[in-house]
What we know:
The protein is mainly beta. The protein has a single domain, classed as Electron Transport, Fmn-binding Protein, Chain A (Pnp Oxidase, Chain A, Roll). The chain contains three helices and twelve strands; from the N terminus they run H-E-E-E-E-E-H-E-H-E-E-E-E-E-E. The strands form three sheets. Strands 3-2-6-9-10-5-4 form a seven-stranded antiparallel β-sheet. A hairpin with a 4-residue loop joins strand 4 and strand 5. The longest helix has 8 residues. The two termini are 31 Å apart.
Amino acid sequence: MTAQAKIPDQDLREYRSALGCFATGVAVVTAEHEGEMLGMTINSFSSVSLEPTLVLWSVGDRAAQFAAFCSAEYFAIHILAASQRRLSDRFAQSSAEKYDGIRWDYDGKRVPRIAGCLARFQCRRHNVMAGGDHKIILGEVESFEFSGGEPLMFVNGQYLECDSSATP
């Protein structure tokens, strides 16, 4: 394989397809900024450092809540269970109705938190960095919870059905 300085526009769809070969977990990030509830589905979550405890995620500059997420001082990242596909679909939408009927609780920083996820990380914004047509949001994990279980996975533009009973 050879590296290209810039991928031609006609190849961007193929580039996205190639990236889609990498299976990722699915998460929902939530925050509250200036009284507005924020929430969106992401698969751009990654651990960065153990000391200090840093994680990152990215938000596209065309996302409806782009500026608010970049400004929010605190946020929560919820790692979804395989059974939470509807929640993933719901938070992939930009409509305000996506918040209706969700069982919320709030931490001491007024961050809305979703119950029943595999893991949940309460974070304080550490840095926001340019990343092309996205901003990379680096957060310091102040607390976390986890219960374990089967994660919701995404690959090649679709959810991956995992069979935990299969042996390697």
